[in-house]
User: Fold Cytidine deaminase from Oceanotoga teriensis.
Amino acid sequence: MTEMMIQKLYKEALKARENAYVPYSNFKVGAALLTQDDEIFTGCNVENASYGLSICAERNAIFSANNSGKRKFKALFVIADTPDPVSPCGACRQVMNEFGDYEVYLANLNGEIKKTSTKELLPYGFSKDDMDDTKK
Ligand SMILES: O=c1ccn([C@H]2C[C@H](O)[C@@H](CO)O2)c(=O)[nH]1
Ligand SMILES: [Zn+2]
Assistant:
């Protein structure tokens, strides 16, 4: 990933974060996902009065890409107003992992960026490779 592309994803994730719908937590998160063919899909968290139905920025970005038929990714960028770069929840780690091993950049509003990957975020994750071949 070039520094220029990281900056571009940072900008897109920050912009997506502004659309977060967070009347319950007041915690806005933004995500920007770069596909293998260099398209960018974004997501923000969207909460619900039935709290458990809320969905994270990361999953919204991934599902948005899927909705356009894109499932091959180079990098996911996530940003929130956190003391340390934001740490994705377990559900998002599992969904990120569904589409393979790719770079993940975690950031906060202070400009701190931590580079990691989907595999590093979910060691020993469950995937389709773990399922019976006949079910593939
Ligand atoms: O990585 C994260 C962590 C939390 N949230 C959302 C879920 C909920 O709307 C709010 C507080 O948990 O932040 C995300 O979108 N991404
Ligand atoms: Zn999550």
User: Anything to note?
Assistant: The longest strand covers residues 73-80. The mean pLDDT is 96.
